[in-house]
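Field reference: sequence -> structure
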Amino acid sequence: MVPVPAPARHAPPAASLMGNGTDAVVVKPHASPSVRRFARELGVDLSLVRGSGPKQRILHDDVRNWVKGVVAQAGAPAAGAAPTGGGAALGLIPWPQVDFASFGPVETKPLARIRRISAANLHRNWVMIPHVTNHEEADITELEALRVQLNRENEKQGIKVTMLAFLIKACVAALQKFPEFNASLDGESLVLKRYWHIGFAADTPNGLVVPVIRDADRKGVLELARETSALAAKAREGKLAPSEMQGGTFTITSLGGIGGTSFTPIINAPEVAILGVSRSAMRPVWDGSAFQPRLMLPLSLSYDHRVIDGAAAARFNVYLSQLLADFRRAVL
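Structure field:
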């Protein structure tokens, strides 16, 4: 739940009074019962929320965005307020304290160290970065055929090329074309990096870690395949050095081996964008005269809206999908 601050002067409340004196009638905010229930659970006064739906109808996303705005802007508790813990630093009321065992059997186990660190970072990044996600699909029919061919040719050398190696190479080319995605926000300045260190999320028994491929622009697909495989193995064994997880300029996170059609990955600060990849699937695609079976790869690009606008993000994702559809473009 979040505390209800005084309404901003520039934003009139959604509820208002009609009439004068004893004839005044309260006009309730325009919202569905489910939205009202959702707002009550969060402690949000709907009269302070501006609706984005038809006829200013308040939607679930409007409530969520209002809460995120309060959390992001509340830098300290209200003057004179006594700290109560569990969010007092942000001016929030305490986290609910529940005796779960009173409702039934429970099991309590501590969070792994990696999950504790990740939780703090993810929470900070989600609250402080205004995320927007652009979704696109890439036709990887020919690229997948090339990947299978390369694996046959390099089987004796023990090299296994995954789609991740191609994605890293394509992302570097896209980042070079759109340098604001390979940047970091530093106060009121944008730091454009002239190096391309690509992080990739690696699933381990203790949680996700992000090894970094340094100078990915100088490496070919086979070298990238070897290095990502070696770093992923070290991650699973818990042997990654801190230096192997630092200095990233852009991150790729893939759920392709599990499933899903799209998602919203959280940006890995101080980066300004992250690419999420879901599972590829065969789909009928119109070629101008008939539908053809094509292997399509879903791409979900989350970006920091303070640095990147929607048009730039769409262009980046479209260009990336073009590179993956015809990988010869990546060497131009």
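Note: Residues 120-331 form a domain with the Chloramphenicol Acetyltransferase fold (CATH 3.30.559.10).
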